[in-house]
What we know:
The structure holds two protein chains of two kinds.
Chain A: E1 3-5, E2 10-12, E3 22-30, E4 37-44, E5 56-57, E6 67-71, E7 79-84, E8 94-101, E9 115-123, E10 129-134, E11 144-153, E12 156-166, H1 169-176, E13 227-229, E14 236-238, E15 249-255, E16 274-282, E17 287-290, E18 298-299, E19 306-308, E20 321-326, E21 333-342, H2 349-352, E22 355-359, E23 365-369, E24 379-388, E25 392-402, H3 405-411
Chain B: E1 3-5, E2 10-12, E3 22-31, E4 42-49, E5 61-62, E6 74-76, E7 90-95, E8 105-112, H1 115-118, E9 125-134, E10 140-145, E11 155-164, E12 167-177, H2 180-187
Parallel strand pairs in B: 1-10
Antiparallel strand pairs in B: 2-12, 3-7, 3-9, 4-5, 4-8, 6-7, 8-11, 9-10, 11-12
Amino acid sequence: MSxxxxxxxxxxxxxxxxxxSQLNIVLGWQAPAALELDxxxxxxxxxxxxxxxxxxxxxxxxxxxxxxxxxxxxxxxxRQFQVTMSALPQSVHKIAVTLTIYNSDTGKYTFSQASxxxxxxxxGHTGAEIFxxxxxxxxxxxxxxxxxxxxxxxSEWKFSAVGAGYFGGLKELCRSYGVEVEDTPTAAPSPxxxxxxxxxxxxxxxxxxPAAPPAPAPQSAPLNLxxxxxxxxxDVINLQKKAAGTLGExxxxxxxxxxxxxxxxNRGSGGTDLDLGCLYELKDGTKGxxxxxxxxxxxxxxxxxxxxxxxxxxxxRAGGENMRINGNxxxxxxxxxxxxxxxxxxxxxxxxxxxxxxxxxxxxxxxVRLDEHDNGKPMCAIAMIQNVGNxxxxxxxxxQYFAGHRQMDEAFRWGxxxxxxxx
Amino acid sequence: xxxxxSKGQKVDLTKTNPGLTKVIVGLGWDTxxxxxxxxxxxxxxxxxxxxxxxxxxxxxxxxFNNPQNANGSVMHSGDNRTGAGDxxxxxxxxxxxxxxxxxxxxxxxxxxxxxxxxxxxxGQVSNAYVRILSELxxxxxxxxxxxxxxxxxxxxxxGExxxxxGEWKFSAIGNGYKxxxxxxxxxxxxxx
Lengths: 423, 192
């Protein structure tokens, strides 16, 4: 039976649920659209600090061997951390779950504007709720809050409902847990890219300079807390220019919600499986498709310089699907249309709630959410990546649905011939 | 060396420390480190109760507005508003032989001032403890760390000095109350 807890309360987690193997830490809230909240989990040692920057699990570092960050898991829930209890190292004494305001540096947003915030602990196997913590909003100028901390106590895990925070945003939070944060945006060797008008560029996350001495443990590169979300159709951004042949690898990750709403007659055979793929056009006129269907996985070192990681048909792999583009070969690439395809079953885009993240070397992550849905069509053109002067790529949000490859091809004038195939 | 007590434990004080007369009862805590939520003001109050467990007169209820009992054998050192700094946050001096005979036990409590309006409770207080020192030597004789036991309470009876067969003993109580100081005052038979 679920218990409801209040601020300040400490509650047993594993003691009342012996053998808990997967703990889902689920968060939700209501906030004005302009108030963007980020969720992070700090994996803390006995001294209350992280052992390295990898111990901050968030959108930029979404998983390790025992914890996975997910967006839009189901229903009203906004974020989720899945924790494999048996795989938790003994060195991790505490998991602090936090919410921070993405655009807090504008000074316009604080937690006083959010409402209905909650944290639920759920048994990942049975789906049973262990406890629920509704945060009363007593917040004033906080821009980062610790919702609560899961912690070890006498060989069990407990939860402490903290519900308090800092005025200094994620940066302040990171400092309190010993995570080094990038002080200023990455110094760009060239002026910031100017998006072609009339499209608009999403705001860039910038961590303000620190007010106090820098945090310790500078053993690794500072965390990149910046991300750029392409929110509206036609939003476009240019990646940073780099010297010829040094653009590096572009990793395109597609992740989605695999939890299927279980009905009485439904054995829960797993959620929708999304495939990731792309149409490519090279400078020499070569055109083709990279996708699992027909085993067209591509290659990084020769044409098409795009490669898809092997597909997992069960969709069970937590990290989703990955495709890589060899940016060092930009001079050979004309354009790439990234798409997702539901190969089998009903096209439940609403349920899958896919999100594409494009990771680049030394730059912010670029995010495209499949948040506009057309459940009748199995194909979604997500983003167009185009060569800009052989120096860098531009990435444009598309998110447009099609009945199939052929229809999408026609819409973007790719000009290939299509036949049905099987994986 | 100090004896570390756990909740519910009772130990001899004067029997094991012959000649001990004046003790200092030190209480300490840390409040939350977060920016919001307002300041914490924790108060130590002392109830000098009779055999029936009640406080006979208002004078035997020692708190920020009444720093000592009638004969001065139990004396509060003053309020520390913030709980900042190392060491004891508040101290109470007890001259054991001078405690009036009708006082059977001396209960030490910590309550959160204006807990309701400030939306605060003991879940936001960490490392709370009580310890008993010899005033003469400064030696710590007994210590009780409250640890995990409290969360949504706004008042805690941390421990009691009590008479037993002509000696003073100490009981690590660690009972929480949700009604703060007002609830405690009622329980000890006083009008708030």
